[in-house]
Design goal:
Structural class of chain A: alpha/beta
Largest interface: A-B, 85 and 85 residues
Shape of chain A: globular
Order of helices and strands of chain A: EHEEEHEHHEHEEEEHE
Number of helices of chain A: 6
Strand content of chain A: 25-35%
Oligomer: homodimer
CATH class of chain A: Alpha Beta
Strand order of the largest sheet of chain A: 3-4-2-1-5-6-7-11-8
Chain lengths: 257, 257
């Protein structure tokens, strides 16, 4: 069997410690190609660039590994990797991250890290988004690398079955402290936003978003529960947003005129 | 009963004919407040603005209706409306659009229109995204307004049941030609991307995204089927991205070390 081709991407850019950790782990399993945004793209969700052109530059960051910076969003990165950089080649796995900060619960919706992974999964590539519950630039990625290795190996052995995208979050704990992996569902939760209003030097108002996460789910089978209880959370995720259970309940719309 | 409070938003900005049509319809049902991005935000998905401040300006566009322009994304607009403009008031309905172009199938993922509506639904507000399969600035919104009226009335009568977000797409047909409404699921489909490569005046390459949609679903219960067969498509949608069916199939991950 030839070496698997692994695409590594993120939303924090090429110089984030998280992507370095992920490149290190992925390189143990196959040929790695890296593409990352040339500026931080946290909170970019599934944004794509339609009204302006994209730049793509080869960069020398990781020894012996092809790496590219792109001027667009994380989703643009994956599209460019598939259609330009790796055109005509089969990508065996896409790994995104390791994000600095949680993408559990509703955060998946806003996350550039997870949207990049989702874009690859839409293209039929098995994909994993990794996030670490430590925002610090000096974060210790030892436990992340340990679990990333395990989960990448499992995925390359085609054990994801029907899943094509998984959202992995790792608690800020040492390997010894982490109790293992929990496969779970996305917790229901949300942010209570607040906007700090200030005045610019010309006296005009501006608003800066801030907020606090609150958890709604009380069950013990959610990603937030797993993280709060010392587990790595793994949520199989998908791009079909249909609320299938709700279809019968709004059938009345078909006869509403 | 007091008049319902209806938030109108979009991703094409305040001067798109689509939002004008939607304001016109919504005004027949209640008090309308409009917030729209100050520049076109197509393809912005669920992006939010974290690293720069937001501007919010009251504008005089629709007679007798409070309207605001925001410098951020469609999701930022909804967050600002809820937390700043309409703080302490209950929003009874959020309508987004009418988008110029389809948001059926996988397009929901990239759509600023649908992400704005989804953001409102995450906040617990019943929400509807409307899209019209006509990109033209001169598009005739007569049939859109006819169906928007019907669907808004149905929603305000609290008949959405378990659904809190619906994705409505309207075919480019006259009222007489449209066969009615179909409640359906999101079709499986994707874009085959192509990037047009060109050189700037300094000889540097740039890439411009283009692509063609291809449909994978063959069933007759999808949004694309409905639209291709002369129906208005309505898909109940949600922000739980968990692939619940896949959970049992990857339980092996819990014992992978």
């Amino acid at each position: 069997m030839s070496k698997p081709l692994i695409l590594v991407t993120n939303d924090d850019g090429m110089f984030a410690p998280g992507i370095k950790a992920l490149v290190e782990v992925a390189s143990q399993f196959g040929e790695v190609v890296v593409i990352a945004p040339d500026s931080p793209q946290s909170g970019q969700g599934h944004a794509i660039t339609l009204t302006s052109p994209l730049r793509l530059n080869k960069v020398d960051v990781f020894e012996g590994i092809d790496a590219y910076e792109c001027s667009g969003t994380p989703v643009d990165c994956v599209k460019l990797a598939k259609s330009v950089i790796l055109k005509d080649r089969k990508i065996d796995l896409c790994v995104s991250g390791i994000n600095h900060g949680s993408n559990a619960s509703i955060n998946i919706i806003y996350s550039g890290t997870m949207s990049a992974a989702m874009e690859a999964s839409i293209e039929g590539i098995p994909s994993i988004g990794f996030s670490y519950l430590d925002f610090s630039f000096e974060a210790d990625f030892t436990s992340c690398k340990y679990y990333a290795r395990q989960i990448i190996e499992y995925t390359l052995n085609q054990k994801l079955g029907k899943a094509s995208l998984i959202n992995v979050n790792i608690p800020k704990l040492t390997i010894d402290e982490i109790k293992g992996i929990r496969v779970c569902k996305q917790a229901e939760g949300n942010w209570t936003e607040d906007f700090v209003e200030s005045k610019d030097p010309r006296g005009q108002s501006y608003y800066w978003m801030t907020g606090e996460f609150y958890l709604e789910s009380k069950e013990d089978d959610t990603d937030i529960w797993a993280l709060n209880n010392g587990y790595v959370s793994v949520v199989p995720s998908m791009h079909d947003l249909t609320d299938h259970k709700a279809i019968p309940s709004i059938k009345g719309l078909e006869n509403s005129n």
